Structures are given as C-alpha cells and as structure tokens.
# Entry
Amino acid sequence: YTPPGNNVQDLEFIAIDTISATKETGRRIAVKVKNTGNVISDASVEFEFINKTTGEGNKLNPIAISTMPGSSQIIYFDIPANLKGAYKGVSIIRIGDTSNVKVGEKNLDL
# Structure
C-alpha cells in the first residue's frame, strides 16, 4: 500500500568508487545510490568510461534496480581488462519511466 500523498521517486548518488581486483571478480566500480523519495523507485543504472586523451567511450550494460524509500544500494560494474590510463567514469540513473535522470562523474586512473 502506498499512501495517496506519497508520489516522489528520487535517487541520489552517494559514492562512485573503484574496488581492487580479486581472483573472482577482477577490477570493479561500485556505484552507491540512495532512495531519497517517499515511494519505491525502479531505475536503470548505467556506467561509461571516457578516455581523457582520446575521448573514446566504453559503455557497460545497464543494471535495473528497485529501492525502498530511505534505503541505499550498491551496484557493481566490472571494469573491462583492456582499459588502461586516465578515464572519466560517468554513471547515469534513469528513474522510472519519466525523464528523471541523475548523472554522477568520477576521475579514474586505471
């Protein structure tokens, strides 16, 4: 049940961090988001690496998430093994089926 006055779908970036390689996972990016709205929010989280020298982009497959109000979630993206050098990491959250979009960036040295 969702009360009639609750209709705000909103997610915010909390952190974008690199995670050291392990035998099982390799290098990863962790994107932490928090539901700051007052209803369950469904979203798609995307991540792209943009080479700072060449401008070449490398988009990863989006990941669908669903979060309760007030809760946080960490989404993991595997870093392609062939990426080396200075990159800008860009993450995009597309919330629901509206034009509610959030963008987070982080400079990465891979």
About this structure: The beta strands are 11-19, 28-35, 41-51, 57-59, 63-67, 72-78, 86-95, 100-109. The CA atoms of residues 55 and 109 lie 15 Å apart. The longest strand covers residues 41-51.
